[in-house]
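Q: Please design a sequence for this.
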């Protein structure tokens, strides 16, 4: 992306000799954006990972507002720990999808119940009767015609 942006800048009057300068500006711009993203995360020293262990960190993750912790080593961001729910939400958002809607889940449940009815002996018998009986139409059917 940075190369494409630099190429666009070059077409708009920047010379290739200025690319290192433009690359540095983009790098600083990206660092500023990244640092603003992590500013909201609750920091935890890397030493706490060893001291508190997983259970202690997990309790802090669950207790945090964002469901994430920023692990810092010598005040420098090193990693992010997050809950499974937060991870799933982020992955779904990154893929451009959301969790299935309640209406879809309700329809799926209703369909599954109707399908389960067909799997009973009585349901199978009703389905066979319906399929074995001739179809009746209100008017003549001509192949190739639409309704």
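A: Design:
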């Amino acid at each position: 992306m940075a190369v494409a942006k630099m190429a666009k800048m070059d077409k708009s009057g920047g010379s290739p000799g200025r690319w290192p300068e433009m690359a540095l500006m983009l790098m600083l711009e990206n660092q500023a954006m990244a640092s603003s993203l992590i500013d909201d995360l609750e920091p935890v020293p890397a030493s706490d990972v060893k001291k508190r262990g997983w259970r202690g960190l997990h309790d802090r993750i669950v207790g945090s507002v964002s469901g994430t912790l920023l692990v810092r080593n010598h005040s420098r961001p090193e990693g992010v720990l997050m809950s499974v729910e937060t991870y799933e939400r982020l992955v779904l958002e990154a893929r451009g999808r959301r969790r299935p809607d309640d209406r879809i889940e309700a329809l799926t449940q209703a369909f599954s119940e109707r399908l389960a009815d067909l799997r009973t002996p009585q349901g199978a018998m009703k389905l066979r009767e319906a399929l074995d009986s001739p179809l009746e139409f209100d008017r003549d059917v001509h192949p190739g015609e639409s309704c």
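Q: Thanks. Anything notable?
A: Residues 81 and 135 are 62 Å apart (CA to CA). The beta strands are 42-45, 68-73, 76-82.
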